Amino acid sequence: MATERPRPEDFLELVERSKRGRLKVFIGFAAGVGKTYRMLEEAHALKKRGVDVVIGFVETHGRAETAALLEGLEIVPTRRVQYRGLAVDEMDLDAVLARHPQVAVVDEIAHTNAPDSRHPKRYQDVLAILDAGINVICAFNVQHLESLKDLVERVTGVVIRESVPDTFLKQADQIVNLDLDVGDLLDRLRAGKIYAEDKVPWALAHFFKEDHLLSLRELALREVAETVERSMSGLVATRDAERTARPNARVMVCVASSSPHAQVLLRRGSRLAGRLNTDWYVVYVETPHEVPTLIDAEAQRRLLATIDKARELGAEVKKLHSHDPVAALLDFARSHGVGYIMIGRSRQPWWRRMLGRSAMDRFVHEADGFDVHIVSFPDEELRP
Description:
This protein is 41% helix and 18% strand. By secondary structure, it is an alpha/beta fold. The longest helix is centred in the middle third of the chain and has 22 residues, at 210-231. The strands form 3 sheets. A 6-stranded parallel beta sheet has the order 3-2-6-7-1-8, with helices on both faces. The termini are far apart.
């Protein structure tokens, strides 16, 4: 059961008003809930109304019911490439752009493209299609949303290797959550309607455990509800008292060049800014000991990766220069409308923290007027 089932012409109305392409996203909590099936149903409905719609890329995963819906729809031929000794079919972005339909259907948005592709990720291909004025209907599962990565891995114990930034979902003009009773989904899995028979036992023992699916279903329902709420411009959010009290306060995430957990902070900051429906900054301070000529190559690579990920998630990145990082960060926060500061838990030994010499302790004592969020990393051992 979907939480929203708009008429195909609802999306068509958006298509006809647009210059840049419009984006419709089907989101689900697991494989097999019906995302691809519903996309193809909508493609047929749009085609019947005279819309020029093509399949940019669809993965049927061997499901007969899904494959049957491809009949009667124009499919842009995929691009076959050799990768690590295997033949891989990739969406042919140039062919989709050259064909220039009104609507393109694109599946598996979190997919990582082969190395010789124009973009590293398929969602970036979709952005290029939208920029060309082509409307897109696409789909992905909630566990691939970047800011939920850490939470999903804790809940399921499964490593999430591919992700879509929250900024992509924020661009959607329509979002449809494909919901399904967990019991019904497990029945479909056991009946071989999701994966081949030889893969079912492994799936049941890992990702498709009932408690995992219940948690993911709740995440999907909540994420879609919050995204729709954030998109309702002009309405005052009443569910979040914190947001009501400080509607314009921005979020500042503080990162260090040496932090191995910076991307965890980024995902937490992205979630907080999304819930508050506000802008956010990622700020780091370059001290005299951290100029590029003095920090090692690994720290430099880590810092550049952090900056790239922050921009991908929609943050504005700022670099400050100071002998005193805490003072510089607090001055920035006061001058840029920040209300919420997010920092990582100190890795300094207990005796230095007792002396009040850690950055975390200084933030707690000096950040008057700010809400300070201290993020812990349970897998990290304190240094002696």
